[in-house]
């Protein structure tokens, strides 16, 4: 049995009491409207520090909730000496409650579901006050915080390690790619030819707009969706006809954007798909010179 289970069995065997947030916290809006880029103390806003001021209003740990805008409902923690902007709600935990426990509960409550309005979402103090939260004894709150802090810290460490590993792999790949693809122009064992000597430049047969639809069977890639997700489709009947009558890439050949983002490349994977003429081209490789795979 874990320590948390033991505490629950000992301190609240009949279940956990629920209370409205306003019963354990004072909830009110910040008042700072300054937007100074420099100052002695930070001003917290909807996503963290947004400005600075010369006089602080608070000198304690408090929870902050973005009150208005796209980040309405976002929760974070303020520490030290600071002030709070007028677009942010302050949740000041009172009594014998662990403020970080309250933070984890509110994060889990998905507060942005209380936001109102379309273009300018708004979370009100009156709605936040009515949120009911489980309130076990302080010892249990502390143990829950300890467990969640451990997971949070471990996750951050794993993310940092993963990012470092990905960066190392990227650098390793680039090193060997450059090593393998770098040749001495004077090396007689290496033959240099122009790209056009590998094969003919090709493109698909033109597809007219009336031949496409928003939903369908075979993805039709235009220059705007090349390398992304198709937003147009053609029928299998048209696909089979054009694929067999006209030029069409072989699996492994490199498709190249010839307008817009010029030079973007995608290796054709052999899946059913069709490509916009003139804007998307490929070189039909002579495989005696260059292999597709």
List keywords for this structure.
4-stranded antiparallel beta sheet; 28% helix; 293 residues; single chain; alpha+beta
Largest sheet: 4 strands, antiparallel
Low-confidence stretches: none
End-to-end Cα distance, whole Å, is: 57 Å
Record the strand order, biggest sheet: 2-8-5-6
The number of helical runs is 6
Give helix % range. Answer: 25-40%
Structural class: alpha+beta
H-E string: HEHEEEEEEEHHEHEEEHEEEE
Task: Calculate the mean pLDDT score and round it.
Answer: 85
Topology of helices and strands:
Layout: H1 3-11, E1 18-20, H2 21-24, E2 25-29, E3 41-45, E4 48-53, E5 62-66, E6 75-78, E7 83-84, E8 88-93, H3 99-108, H4 125-129, E9 132-134, H5 138-181, E10 199-203, E11 218-221, E12 233-234, H6 236-245, E13 254-257, E14 265-267, E15 274-275, E16 280-285
Notes on the protein architecture:
This protein is α+β, with helices and mostly antiparallel strands. Helix content is 28%, strand content 22%. It has six helices and 16 strands. The strands form five sheets. Strands 2-8-5-6 form a four-stranded antiparallel beta sheet. Strands 10-16-13-14 form a four-stranded antiparallel beta sheet, with no helix packed on it. The protein has a three-stranded mixed beta sheet with strand order 4-3-7, with no helix packed on it. β13 and β14 (265-267) form a beta hairpin. α1 (3-11) runs antiparallel to α5 (138-181). It is elongated, with a radius of gyration of 31 Å. The mean pLDDT is 85.
């Amino acid at each position: 049995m874990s320590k948390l289970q033991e505490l629950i069995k000992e301190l609240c065997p009949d279940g956990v009491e629920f209370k409205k947030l306003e019963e354990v916290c004072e909830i009110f809006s910040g008042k700072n409207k300054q937007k100074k880029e420099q100052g002695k103390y930070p001003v917290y806003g909807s996503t963290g520090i947004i400005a600075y001021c010369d006089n602080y209003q608070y000198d304690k740990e408090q929870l902050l909730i973005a009150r208005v805008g796209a980040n309405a409902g976002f929760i974070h923690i303020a520490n030290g000496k600071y002030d709070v902007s007028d677009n942010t709600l302050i949740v000041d935990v009172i009594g014998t409650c662990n403020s970080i426990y309250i933070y984890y509960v509110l994060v889990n409550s998905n507060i942005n579901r209380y936001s109102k309005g379309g273009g300018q979402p708004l979370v009100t103090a009156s709605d936040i006050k009515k949120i009911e939260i489980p309130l076990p004894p302080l010892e249990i709150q502390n143990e829950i915080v300890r467990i969640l802090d451990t997971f949070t810290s471990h996750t951050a460490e794993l993310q940092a390690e993963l990012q470092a590993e990905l960066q190392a792999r990227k650098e390793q790949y680039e090193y060997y790619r450059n090593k393998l693809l770098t040749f001495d122009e004077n090396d007689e064992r290496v033959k240099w030819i122009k790209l056009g000597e590998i094969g003919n430049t090709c493109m698909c047969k033109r597809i007219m707009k009336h031949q496409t639809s928003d939903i369908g069977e075979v993805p039709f890639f235009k220059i705007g969706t090349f390398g992304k997700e198709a937003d147009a489709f053609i029928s299998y009947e048209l696909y089979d006809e054009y694929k067999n009558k006209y030029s069409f890439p072989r699996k492994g050949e490199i498709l190249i954007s010839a307008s817009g983002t010029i030079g973007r490349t995608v290796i054709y994977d052999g899946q059913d798909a069709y490509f916009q003429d003139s804007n998307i081209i490929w070189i039909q490789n002579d495989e005696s010179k260059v292999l597709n795979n």
